[in-house]
Amino acid sequence: MSPNRDNVHREYDVFKDSLLRYLGYANEVGESFRFMVPVKVVWFSYFVSSGYVIADALDKGYKVWKKPFQREEKRLEKTAIATIDTLIWQGLASVVIPGFTINRICWATNKLMTRTALPQPVKKWSVVVVGIGSIPFIVKPIDRAVDLLMDSTLRKLYNHK
């Protein structure tokens, strides 16, 4: 068990507490290299991140499914909620928002670099360095924003049942 953000101990989660977590960042790395690699490489990075999201959602649903329930309908409902909640949260927080954010950071960096007299390799690698270097700074704010968004919208719908 490890402490969560509220300093309460929680069960070990292979998708959050192991090196597998970094697969969720594959698309941000792909976006950082967009100006240096074929676009199919970037698409593949999204495939990897999306696979991580789907695997995490299925894992969360399966963990709920294994719990004892008095009624089968409740098991199905709670499993669906856990799976869909994780799928939406991870999709937004690990793929959509960070991918777009790094894409725009790299696009702006590339625009700035085209205005310099630096050698072309320096310009291209600068975009990569800025993109990858931005990842640690965007993760927590995006996670918090997605928590806030979901807590004030979707989670209100299914947490009152």
TrEMBL record:
InterPro entries recorded: Mitochondrial_18_kDa_protein
Transcription regulation recorded as keyword: no
Recorded superkingdom: Eukaryota
TM ranges: 41-58, 79-102
Any Pfam family: MTP18
Keywords from the named record: Membrane, Transmembrane, Transmembrane helix
GO-annotated biological processes: mitochondrial fission
Record-level GO cellular component terms: mitochondrion
Family recorded in the similarity comment: Belongs to the MTFP1 family.
Name of the protein this chain belongs to: Mitochondrial fission process protein 1
